[in-house]
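Troubleshooting log. The previous run stalled partway through. Resubmitting the same two chains, unchanged.
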Amino acid sequence: MSKANFDDFLQEQLANPSEVSPSRDLWSGIEKAIATSAHEETVSTQYWPKVTGIAACFIAGLLAWNVSMNQPELNTMRDLSALFEQQKQALLVQYKTQPALTSDWQGQLDELEQAEQAIKLALQNDPENAALLKMLAQVYQQQLDLINRVHAPSWQQI
Amino acid sequence: MLIDAKQAFSNTNTDDKSDDLIRKVQQGDQVAFAQLYRKHEKPVFALCLRLLADQQHAEDVTQEVFVQLWHKIAQFQGQSKFSTWLHSVTSNIAISYLRKHKNWLQKVVSFEQNGMDEQSIAMCNGLNGLDKLILRLPERARLVFVLHAVEGYRHEEIGNMLNMAVGSSKSQYHRARQLLQEWYEHE
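Second attempt completed without errors. Output:
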């Protein structure tokens, strides 16, 4: 059987959008968030979320400024690692008093750190290898995502 | 010639039946909001998945969209179809999420995020052939293609949404189209 012309394929597929569902029930989290925000609106003395938000924005702004100031030199493993460590420590401090939502997240972080070390070792032999630098950046991103995820508002975890 | 899929979505009779629901939700009816969520959950999630190319992130953003919808639904005045308005809200939240969560790394190392790998795509049930290919596209090409070909935005609008020149939007669209055609013809 011959394939349809690409334009026909596009037209047909765009007219019949995918019926794809999330892998988990999202409604319970949404319901909880709505209920939480309704409660927060009634309690005027709850200023800590605002303070935390402002602090997070300040840290993010500081890091963005740092990134933009240092951008021309950010091509080596050392610079990349230094920036990542800064970001990671800022997040860990930010979430220090906030309980993690899973108990095994440190174990997952350890595994990612082991991957980071293996890539760094390979980069010592080939410091300009773009594929290895990209892999290192991805492992760093995974670590940040993990830290953010386990400390995210509980409704996002449901 | 591509059809305007935004129009295709809007042409369903879902919107007509939603009018009453929307009014109830605007009055604070949470039961009606649950019904509205069930009606629009799948297209919103599908759009998030196309834009983010990550199932977990798409789920988080879908939740965020509906949480924000609850707070913003009073702003919907019925001047456009509800599904069109909801898709626009969803696109903006997903793009903002991408900026917030990925920006620093992309600034540090100048590489473009790849699309999803084939194993992850296979785990998403219900995707049609085109969506399976869209999810493989690199980020910028994917965003432009989804916004233009699927959601019906003009390149000028996409330029504003993604902070890129109109010419870049057009070239990313052609790049996406070429890649999709290549993959389609070689599969």
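Takeaways: Chain B has two domains: 1-110, 112-187. The first helix of chain B runs from residue 5 to 10.
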